[in-house]
Amino acid sequence: MSPRLATFLMFVANGAVVGTWVAFIPTVKEGLAVSAGAFGVALLFGPLGALVSQQISGQLLVRFSSRRLVTLSGLVYPWLVLLPLAAPSVPVLAASLFVMGYFNSMMDLTMNAHGVALEERGDDSIMSRLHAGWSLGGVIAPVAVAAALELGVDRRLEAVVAAALLFVLILFAARHLGTGSTRAEHTDGLHLPSRAVLPLAGLIVLIAFVEGGLTDWGGVYLNEGIGAGASVAAMAYASLSLGMLVGRLGGDWTKDRIGSIRLMQLGMLMTAVAIAVFLLVGEPWVALAGMVAAGIGVANTVPQIFGAAGRIPPGGPSLSAVFTTLTLVFVAGPPFIGATSDAVGIDGAFWLFVAASIVVAIIVPRVPAAETNPRFRREA
Q1: Which of 74, 173, 186, 285 is the most buried (most CB within 10 A)?
Q2: Which CATH number is 195-377's, of 1.20.59.20, 1.10.1040.10, 1.20.1250.20, 1.20.1050.10?
Q3: What is the phi/psi pair of residue 182, to 5°?
Q4: How many whole angstroms separate alpha carbon 352 and alpha carbon 368?
Q5: Are 20 and 156 in contact (CB under 8 A)?
Q6: R_g of the chain, CA atoms, integer Å
């Protein structure tokens, strides 16, 4: 097995763990019999654990190889799904999600660093394909969990089987990861990210605002904005995910021919047009088709930004800075969109996604560091 395929499987496994937990969320909430507000507070501890992990993992990447770190975190992470399922109270659930968030982010950050290192040493691009693996895992796992629940399988047994299968997959892939990133020559002291990463962090704020907003509020728009039924509204995230999977499968091929800056620029323009069209038409089937198109458009932006950040020395802290920015937006974005929706309506909030997409398309050509294709980097 090639190191690239092994790394792809790591992305699949990480996405599958996330998808497994997401599929169990409704049953966990029902089992605790708590309010939406209390449950929402507990869910915030996942991103908080991720924020802590990103600062530590960025420093660890300076001292240890990405292969060692992604293997360590990957072998631990699948088993952590068992913790929230066994939580008897909201405080225990919050603590469980903090630990899950910590190891998820450690695995996520280090497997991206590993992918960047492999891409730099290769002749073609791989970051979008790796992220397609994450999307694939995130699609397969919830379907498997839902099918097992429908058959009456106990959720804890499901989680144990899922964790065991993913553990074996990660253990197998870890043996073929290759070198990846290596420890830095100088490992003393605290390593801060370069100022060159700041424009990339600025781009990720807008990109995460759009992607996170569509993820969290797409179903709400279909249900409340245009009156679609609950079953149709539930297809919003699936439509977005399908578009992102398709977009990422073709992203590396496209980047090798037009460069990452052009890829992101055209993608965000496509996203802006797709959202604008379904807002103007106001029909459920158009909205679902628009979510697929928006998913294709936004699909390759995060992989390209991660790839660009990982190339800015010191790679670990620079990549960590972008991850931290992404997490903060995912935490702060939903309440901001909620407040905006209360003030001007859900349609008005979605027009902000159109505006943000257009701003990214205008700004990204002015950020030379965003170009990861060497053939086009000289022209940036």
Answers
A1: 74
A2: 1.20.1250.20
A3: -115, 165
A4: 26
A5: no
A6: 20
Please give the residue that has the higher pLDDT: either 5 or 339.
Answer: 5
Q: Is the pLDDT of residue 182 over 60?
A: no
Q: Is the dihedral of CA 369, 371, 376, 380 positive or negative?
A: negative
The C-alpha atoms of residue 50 and residue 216 are separated, in whole angstroms, by: 19
Mean pLDDT of 121-132: 88
Tell me 194's DSSP state: P
Q: How far is CA 199 from CA 204, 305, 321, 322, 360, in A?
A: 9, 10, 11, 10, 11
Predicted local confidence at residue 187, as pLDDT: 45
pTM of whole model > 0.85?
no
Type of residue numbered 237: Y
Q: Which residue has the tokens 């697929």?
A: 292
Q: Which of 331, 47, 320 is nearest to 200 (CA)?
A: 320
SS3 189: coil
**Does the domain spanning 3-174 belong to CATH 3.40.1280.10?**
no
Which residues in 185-201 are b (16+ Cβ under 10 Å) and which e? eeeeeebebbebbebbb
Q: Same fold for the domain at 3-174 and the one at 195-377? A: yes
Average pLDDT, the chain: 87
Contact 81, 130 (CB under 8 A): no
